[in-house]
Specification:
The protein is an alpha+beta fold. 24% of the residues lie in helices and 40% in strands. Strand 5 and strand 6 (117-122) form a beta hairpin. The longest helix is centred in the middle third of the chain and has 17 residues, at 45-61. The radius of gyration is 17 Å and the shape is elongated.
Length: 144
Amino acid sequence: MTTKETIVNILHDCGVELYDLETVSEYEQKIFRIYITSKEEKVNLDKCAEVTKILSPILDLEPPVNGVYTLEVSSPGIERPLKKMEHYIGSIGEDVKVKLISTDKIIGKLDSVENGKLTITEYDGEVTVIPMDDIEKARTYYKW
């Protein structure tokens, strides 16, 4: 079983799902981040601490990265990045902000994800269909 599979199984037992994994370097320190979500409850600090407490000793035995690192478990946030197809599908019905390779930005409600294309209803009512290949980056959007 891979480290990712181990993490997914443990998260499932904790009542949460894996949203994303990343390894980054900040201030010359390696950080292994696990982003978690849940359909049943909001991911809060207590849930992140619970998951960290369970995962930490397991990852000490099977390190996810080489060398010294810090484990961080958190929610992807209210304005979370959309990187994978399942991120887009899970965000149907939510507001999104999409930056296209052409530098245009589209903001509106994500209506559907089909055949490699997003359908977004912009705030002015215009419906825009965007091929996934035209997207530079995307995230959910919260109108403050």
